[in-house]
């Protein structure tokens, strides 16, 4: 396997690119910065979508769809927003063979267009809260693209809500942060995340507060995996999102927005992948058990028939299973491909093991191989899936803890960020120190209270800052 992928310790970026190519997850698109997500990669994204969509709906939001093209004037109505996105915008000036009277922007995010329709749909306090989500593609012109992590077009969900009070908006932004984002990342993706508040320098353009989920990757760098924003009344005032209060007055709504994207796929690769390929947490895996016919025997009752029966039994037990009976392809090549794809469990069925009444259960997380009586395979697979879901999370958490250091000065934090994360008093950094760190390629990933909870403001006393290099 060492010859299939560049070792992570030797060249982590090259390993990442090798894995994406060899596991057939994605390819570069024909326009610089775009990507083609191949079936193996898209199957994982579909599972992420399904799990995230269920959590978003459980929080009360409903799915809708808004246009890809947004009038340029919409973005200009919220000055900070358009300024923040200006370098990344793709603008259409000609269509149908003619110059457009007004240029249109290819959707970088949808606060503006959704704000326009919120203003149309909201009249009374009885219309609030309005909780919307859409699954879509967005375009942000990327100068330094990297598949899944930074591409000019990517897939995501973006939620947009309007509320009667600031307190309700804040509570909902945090509900999504914890109940949808953090829960999915920790309990399904197996990625332990630090959840905190972004600094003013790092927050979303036009927001009053940005909350983030930050994961540590295999090389010690941070990756922002999802964000939730309080927008205050900035967009409500720009787009006249008002409602009649119970007292009869006219009030501006308070809005939020929040999003996660195909960047989570990049995070999954870099958090759990090893020198043999991807390792997909069982709860997420499109294929949890991969049943392989090693070599077929003669007549009925051979490995092919036994493998099919095992597939049926596993499927009946609720396991997502696939059968590989391609005995005309060398078994070693098929096993390498299965390792690269990160299938949590392989069940290998060959004549020799079957003659002894066994199949071989191979666990991707630790590489162990165990002969198991055929009658016990389903139980062994179910136990392995449960254990390895937790094992991947625990390994990632241990890695993060081993690469995170407590320091007391900005200089120490910047030094520590060369190999991992630094926890430092925010009072020792501040806005000036943050600018100094940025100049050296280090960012403040988020701010936390001393007890690890999420602060309301960066002005709270005794906050802790997480500094790191990041993707």
TrEMBL record:
Lineage of source species: Bacteria, Bacillati, Actinomycetota, Actinomycetes, Micromonosporales
Keyword Nucleotide-binding in annotation: yes
Top-level lineage group: Bacteria
Location within or outside the cell: Cytoplasm
NCBIfam families documented for this protein: proS_fam_I
InterPro entries recorded: aa-tRNA-synt_IIb, aa-tRNA-synth_II, aa-tRNA-synth_II/BPL/LPL, Anticodon-bd, Anticodon-bd_dom_sf, Pro-tRNA-ligase_IIa, Pro-tRNA-ligase_IIa_arc-type, Pro-tRNA_ligase_II_C
SUPFAM superfamilies xrefs: Class II aaRS ABD-related, Class II aaRS and biotin synthetases
Catalytic activity: tRNA(Pro) + L-proline + ATP = L-prolyl-tRNA(Pro) + AMP + diphosphate
PROSITE patterns, per the entry: AA_TRNA_LIGASE_II
Subunit structure: Homodimer.
Protein name: Proline--tRNA ligase
Protein function: Catalyzes the attachment of proline to tRNA(Pro) in a two-step reaction: proline is first activated by ATP to form Pro-AMP and then transferred to the acceptor end of tRNA(Pro).
Any one Gene Ontology molecular-function term assigned to this protein's record: ATP binding
Keywords: Aminoacyl-tRNA synthetase, ATP-binding, Cytoplasm, Ligase, Nucleotide-binding, Protein biosynthesis
Record-stated family: Belongs to the class-II aminoacyl-tRNA synthetase family. ProS type 3 subfamily.
Protein's organism: Micromonospora rhizosphaerae
HAMAP family: Pro_tRNA_synth_type3
CDD domains according to UniProt: ProRS_core_arch_euk (cd00778)
PANTHER family (alphabetical): PROLINE--TRNA LIGASE, CHLOROPLASTIC_MITOCHONDRIAL, PROLYL-TRNA SYNTHETASE
